[in-house]
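stage 2 :: seqdesign
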């Protein structure tokens, strides 16, 4: 396994590995990098759906989509994926059934199931075909938090969030978002803005388009702080842009990163597989790469 850092200094690019035969130690290292740095890219993989699930289950339990209350995703499951792989795009190759988020326009900044306390902390994206020319970007909210001045860190250290958003702000595919994450305001769970993840790394849980309000703030004060933090985190130095090639995998941590798929003219042909998973089958406590 060969690991190189992207020019941004924090995204690991992994080559010279076939994940089908990867050791548990190698899997642990990949998971640790994702938790520590938010985004890991693995190149040149040639996987069947069953391979994808087998690899992910070395990292942690995968969301069983058929068991979740997500009826609109039933037609978007990948055959051979054991109910754990959702197809993103590529509807024209699946009897006319659209994939998740199969619209040409941007899928704006978001992360996995922000309104759910039992949300999975990792997302696996595997590019199967026709991905060339498409781009997804990630923001590292570990680094953006570290760069805040101490006065602002003190100001936000105990803040909690009220989650809920207008699905149309994120995507044209509002049906999928509503059924999956519910854009209704969640008054029963108030996650902290400052979060420490499974690797013991602290940053911001700040998917700014999916936040209804900061708990205890009036709307104007809440919106002003969210906008101030948004301007900070969207700086280029905290961003990784991934220009897809077939066979690419991007594994991303979902508490301290957010991502955006940019306009994709080829979305009806581009096929990407998505798995939501946990860290509970691997050891990232003292992993050394």
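stage 2 :: out
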């Amino acid at each position: 396994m060969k690991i190189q850092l992207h020019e941004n200094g924090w995204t690991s690019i992994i080559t010279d590995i076939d994940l089908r035969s990867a050791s548990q130690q190698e899997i642990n290292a990949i998971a640790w990098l994702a938790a520590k740095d938010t985004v890991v890219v693995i190149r040149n993989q040639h996987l069947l759906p069953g391979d994808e699930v087998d690899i992910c289950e070395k990292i942690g339990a995968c969301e069983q989509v058929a068991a979740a209350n997500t009826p609109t995703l039933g037609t978007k499951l990948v055959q051979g994926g054991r109910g754990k792989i959702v197809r993103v795009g590529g509807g024209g190759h699946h009897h006319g059934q659209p994939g998740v988020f199969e619209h040409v326009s941007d899928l704006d900044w978001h992360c996995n199931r922000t309104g759910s306390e039992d949300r999975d902390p990792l997302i696996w994206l595997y590019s199967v075909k026709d991905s060339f020319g498409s781009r997804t970007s990630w923001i590292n909210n570990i680094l953006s938090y570290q760069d805040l001045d101490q006065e602002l860190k003190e100001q936000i250290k105990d803040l909690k969030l009220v989650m809920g958003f207008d699905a149309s702000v994120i995507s044209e595919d509002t049906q999928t978002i509503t059924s999956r994450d519910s854009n209704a305001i969640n008054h029963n769970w108030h996650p902290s803005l400052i979060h420490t993840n499974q690797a013991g790394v602290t940053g911001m849980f700040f998917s700014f388009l999916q936040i209804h309000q900061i708990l205890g703030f009036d709307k104007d004060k809440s919106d002003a702080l969210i906008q101030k933090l948004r301007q900070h985190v969207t700086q280029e130095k905290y961003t990784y842009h991934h220009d897809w090639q077939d066979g690419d995998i991007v594994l991303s941590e979902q508490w301290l990163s957010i991502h955006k798929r940019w306009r994709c003219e080829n979305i009806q042909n581009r096929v990407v597989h998505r798995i939501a998973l946990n860290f509970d089958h691997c050891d990232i406590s003292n992993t050394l790469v």
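stage 3 :: structure notes
- The chain has a mean pLDDT of 92.
- The CA atoms of residues 76 and 87 lie 5 Å apart.
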